[in-house]
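Predict the 3D structure for this chain.
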Amino acid sequence: MARWTDRGLAFTDLILEVFRLNGLLLAAGDQLAAPSGLTSARWQVLGVADHGPVTVAQVARTMGLKRQSVQQTADALARDGFVVFVDDPDDARARRIALTTAGRRALRAVEARHAVWVEGLAARVDLTALQATVAALRDAVHLLQSPPRARGRPRKD
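Done. Predicted structure below.
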């Protein structure tokens, strides 16, 4: 049986809670997005593309997703008229995702529902604790994105 330090146990607890939270957020996102004909995945892609035309690879990197799954989602969004593919001025072989009027309208409707939902939740959470949690999650992201050598050896406490 593996031996765990208190830090290792705490980090494992963090991982498990993030997995649970992710599932709950995806389900809630699907409910928020459904009236606009979207899913959480489609909402995420539209949200990234809202800042200007982007490649599938850029969306995947931004959201921490696999390029292939983003491509499938973008293709479905295009079929349903929420996005179009436009030429990429930086790469003649690539295409970028751009929102259509219908895509922008759907995104704004989801954002409005999201604002009401999130404000209701946020009112029930201590701001300082929330900010500390965000900082801890960002630290975890940074650790996981670091090259293995940069991670160093575990601290002994």
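Residues 103 and 115 are 18 Å apart (CA to CA).
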